[in-house]
Amino acid sequence: MLRRRRLLAGVTSPAAAELRRAFRSEAALEAIHAHSHPSKDAADSEGPTHLALYHYPTFAGAYAALAAHLFHRRLRRRLLLLPFSSVEPFRVGDFEDGGFQKCYLLDFIGPKNFALELSRFIPRICNLLDQEDEERVFNVLKYIEDADLRQWQLPNSKEFQTALSDERAKLNCITNPLSLARDRLEAAGRLIDRPFKVQLGRGLYGECLAIRADGNSKLSHEIGLELSQRSAAAGLRPIGAVVFMQRGLLKVCLRTTDNTIDTAEIAKAYGGGGKPNSSSFALRLEEFNAWTSVNS
Fold first, then answer.
1. Where are the chain's structural domains?
2. Is this structure's pTM higher than 0.85?
3. Does domain 14-127 match CATH 3.40.30?
């Protein structure tokens, strides 16, 4: 018969000691302080510090953290990795004076408004799927799940799986290396070279650079961020507007790399929404033409 090993009085169990070192502990807060105030030699040789918070305890979060660690080590970039648990979660204020340039949220997006509050003082917040991506792939994931669980409850589910199986060969990284990434960059480059000015809200929200991306809506995020920087360099508002036709209306996607700009304010005025650095809304062609009359 197995017996539980008796702990000696006054001796802390390894598990309890580990819990005190993890999550929002003094050690974790000291690590944040140390990375945010590096020695001059470290800061000069490796650049600014990036932050990665991974979901604990999940395998997806742990493996994502490992990938982030290996990536930054190979490029000799400074990275602080910390576990994020709902048991004792970090507070937004813990990172406010850290001087982090980028934050990765691995396998989670945090409590309500957590990512939004971080974005007020960390220029870039990255997660695996943002809201627009999630909406775009939701139906595809449901169909894949329907087949994996052998439920076959969705309309034309078997036909969908047959068509999808024909695409699997394209996922071979040996026979089809980086073709998708190359095509995206080439297409984005062609579009970015043809920007034009728009008066946001007929000038109420200032001017910025825009492009038409009909047939290339999947590139809207990358193009918008690059366009935001070019717009700022041209003396306009640091916003990039990517416009394409969708269901008979123009969809306008706004992106900015400036964390003092709130693009959602513009989007909400036209019935849309989003985050300060990433938002979208629908617009009638006649209204958009009024925005571009500055070019005529």
1. 14-127, 131-164, 185-295
2. no
3. no
